[in-house]
Amino acid sequence: MDSLETRLRALVLLSLEGDRAAYRQLLGELTHYLRIYFARRLAPAHAANVEDLVQETLLAVHAKRLTYDTARPFTAWLHALAHHKLVDHLRRHAIRPTVPLDDEMTGGVPAGDLAAHDLDRVLETLPERTSTLIRRVKVEGASVAEAASAHGMSEGAAKIAIHRGLKALMARFAGDR
User: Fold this and answer.
1) Which of 38, 48, 124, 136 could make an S-S bridge to 142, C-beta 3.0–4.6 Å?
2) CA distance 144 to 155
3) Does the structure show a pLDDT above 90 at 120?
4) For 138, which DSSP code?
5) Exposure b/e, 77-109, CB count within 10 A at least 16 = b
6) Under 8 Å between Cβ of 9 and 68
């Protein structure tokens, strides 16, 4: 990963100085990297959308390249952009049917589907970054370091955000226990 960071960082710094060849090379390497990034994160049903997400992310890199803080790792900045594009995609394509919850209707619905829906509703009560961090670490099994990197924040800050988010959920939903 360090060689990737070093290579991409060198290319982005050259491109920010106006080196067109470095910019073309950067976009080529990002295309390959982002294809893998999105393919690993999308369900097979959404695999056809990988190229669209790659293109949207490359457009975001182009549009926001001047906001990149050269004192920070480039891959963390890139992951934050890619993550936001992925979240936007998942929200646009999410199908959330509403079904009355009487006993006759829930009999055929798998408990996992109901639990996933409940989890989504509960996490929606938190700020977006906190809910995304909790989902990545506690549900999807990502490390705190990976989740923090995707949001361009330190591991300690991510741990604190997760802890506070879980504490807020406990306070909100624990009742009189």
Assistant:
1) 136
2) 6
3) no
4) I
5) bbbbbbbbbbeebeeeeeeeeeeeeeeeeeeee
6) no
The predicted structure's pLDDT at residue 2: 66
51 DSSP assignment: H
Q: What is the pLDDT of residues 57-116, one digit of tens each?
A: 999 999 998 888 989 999 999 999 999 998 888 888 774 444 445 544 445 556 556 677
Would the pLDDT of 23 be above 80? Answer: yes
Angle value at C-alpha 120, between 115 and 121, nearest 5 degrees:
95
Question: Can you tell me the distance from the alpha carbon of 16 to that of 24, in angstroms, rounded to the nearest whole number?
Answer: 12
Going along the chain from its start, the domains and CATH numbers come out as 2-93 (1.10.1740.10), 105-173 (1.10.10.10)
Residue 94: name the closest of 86, 82, 83, 102 by CA.
Answer: 86
